[in-house]
Write a structure and sequence with these properties.
Helices cover 16% and strands 40% of the residues. With 203 residues, the protein is an alpha+beta fold. The strands form two sheets. Strands 4-5-6-7-8 form a five-stranded antiparallel β-sheet. β2 and β3 form a beta hairpin. It is rod-shaped, with a radius of gyration of 29 Å.
Length: 203
């Protein structure tokens, strides 16, 4: 009474761990017995991974890439003389993200322009402009609470796939929530444009 993992369940976990990969959600023992990452009830319905899962999965390996690619490019042009000078720059940043499931991508575009002109001995003109656009694409399920739920509920025994090769749903630890749960959305897309014109009277 009160025991979460009984002897039979632990024996199944060890058996699955020692077996070799065979197919989606299944392995094969040295004597040819096919074992599954979770059991089914009398009606053929898969039991919850929390109820009878026997997997030994590294969930952070399932969720995160081992490495990712990012790139940043910058260009700027400047020039002028005593009465007029300018500076124009642009940058592009692209980050492929760390999440394997559902995909993740961040792109940022920035541009800056500065103009300074001494129009007359008593009148100056300054112009500053900055443009920023950021597009962040991620799984819709990847909310602020997704990672805390995942760290609490992603038990190693939970199946990743069922016997048909589909992602197995196990509450907040499910890869299904990231891969297929609501698709993707652009969570942060903004355009920031700041213009300033300044006339200075020199007496």
């Amino acid at each position: 009474s009160g025991v979460m993992f009984g002897e039979d369940w632990l024996a199944d976990i060890v058996e699955y761990h020692n077996a070799k990969p065979y197919g989606p959600g299944s392995r094969i023992t040295p004597d040819g017995k096919i074992v599954y990452s979770t059991s089914a009830d009398g009606n053929g319905q898969f039991l919850s991974g929390f109820t009878r899962g026997v997997n030994d999965v590294d969930w952070y390996g399932v969720m995160y890439k081992k490495w990712t690619f990012s790139q940043e490019h910058n260009v700027n042009v400047s020039g002028g003389d005593e009465k007029f000078n300018y500076y124009v720059s642009g940058a592009f940043f692209d980050f492929d993200g760390l999440i394997k499931l559902g995909g993740e991508d961040l792109q940022r575009y920035t541009a800056t322009a500065k103009l300074n002109s001494q129009i007359t001995s008593w009148l100056s003109f300054d112009f500053n402009m900055r443009f920023t656009r950021e597009d962040y694409d991620r799984p819709a399920r990847q909310t602020d609470g997704a990672f805390s739920n995942f760290s609490q509920n992603a038990w190693p025994i939970l199946p990743v796939e069922d016997r048909n090769g589909h992602y197995f749903y196990s509450s907040d630890a499910s890869p299904l929530g990231l891969a297929d749960g609501g698709g993707k959305e652009i969570s942060n897309k903004r355009i920031l444009l700041i213009c300033r014109q300044l006339f200075i009277l020199n007496r």
